[in-house]
Design a protein that fits this description.
The chain has helices at residues 16-25, 51-60, 84-103, 121-138, 161-170, 183-189, 196-206, 241-249, 271-280, and strands at residues 3-7, 30-33, 69-71, 108-111, 144-148, 177-182, 212-217, 219-220, 231-232, 257-260. By secondary structure, it is α/β, with parallel strands linked by helices. The strands form two sheets. The protein has an eight-stranded parallel barrel with strand order 1-2-3-4-5-6-7-10, surrounded by five helices. It has a two-stranded antiparallel ribbon with strand order 8-9.
């Protein structure tokens, strides 16, 4: 079975210790987090974040650090280079985030490919190639940048497997690039997620399964091809629990970290229950009523 976890927080006063403790409270054996607020560039120095204590706690509980995932802030957009000052800020901020990821002992950073903002996918491709080349030439880390599959909302790029394959084929630092497959996003982009085997075979044909480093496991509020990107709790949306469970038990994903980004139920996180259902394979139709 794959490694199962969810998106968790990083906040005072415990910082990384609290991040690890939250993941453990959900019975997770992997997790994903931001190194700071995703909506701004303000960051606390790594020395303040109790990283070594958090890493010791991971070790104590036998959690493999190589399965831990960091998510880049949403405000980084390398898909449009029209405004040099904005493009330069995105590059410098991403370099900082890659160095911070390495500082936590993590080796994977999930990045949205960006938005072309009023141009077209080709413009977005060229901007992303230019921006990420400069980043990889100067960040000084070996962190894998996992480009996330997107739903196609607005002017997003990175919607199709073909786009990502072309990007990797043209990118001079291709060994630094992986892919994060988001089940809600690819469903909303038009792929058939209900057949996990066929979807992964298509991914393997176009990109190669060795490029697949992280899975975001989310149901979708929308029908296939809606291009809206609205996550739903497992079994509640248009994908359904059975189809999503196949990703957890599929042999091709056995060593991959699988991260839940499903919405809270009211004011309660659903992750402990969702992880338990995925591990058992038994779905409870009224599970949200008993959180």
């Amino acid at each position: 079975m794959s490694y199962l976890g969810c998106h968790v927080g990083l906040s005072a006063p415990k910082y990384y210790v609290g991040t690890v403790e939250e993941a453990l409270s959900y019975d997770a054996d992997t997790f994903m987090f931001y190194t700071g607020a995703p909506q701004n560039t303000r960051r606390k120095d790594l020395s303040e974040l109790r990283i070594e204590e958090g890493r010791a706690l991971l070790s104590k509980h036998g959690i493999d650090e190589s399965k831990i995932v960091v998510h880049a802030p949403y405000i980084i957009n390398l898909g449009n280079k029209d405004k040099p000052e904005t493009f330069d800020l995105a590059k410098s901020f991403l370099i900082q985030e890659l160095r911070r990821t390495s500082g936590f002992g993590a080796s994977k950073l999930v990045l949205h490919p960006g938005s072309h903002v009023g141009h077209d996918e080709r413009h977005g491709m060229e901007s992303l190639l230019l921006g990420l080349e400069e980043v990889c030439a100067h960040d000084g880390t070996d962190v894998t940048i996992c480009l996330e599959t997107m739903a196609g909302k607005g002017s997003e790029i990175g919607v199709s497997f073909d786009f990502l394959a072309e990007f990797i084929a043209r990118f001079p630092f291709a060994d630094r690039i992986g892919v994060c497959l988001d089940t809600c996003h690819v469903h909303d982009a038009g792929y058939d997620v209900l057949d996990a085997d066929a979807l992964l075979k298509e991914f393997d044909r176009v990109l190669g399964l060795d490029r697949l480093k992280v899975v975001h496991l989310n149901d979708s509020k929308n029908p296939r091809g809606a291009h809206k990107d609205r996550h739903e709790n497992l079994g509640i949306g248009h994908i359904g629990f059975e189809a999503l469970h196949w990703f957890v038990i599929h042999p091709a994903l056995e060593e991959k970290p699988i991260i839940l980004e499903t919405p809270w139920v009211g004011e309660k996180p659903p992750y402990k229950k969702e992880i338990a259902m995925l591990r058992s394979g038994a779905y409870e139709a009224d599970w949200r009523e008993h959180l």
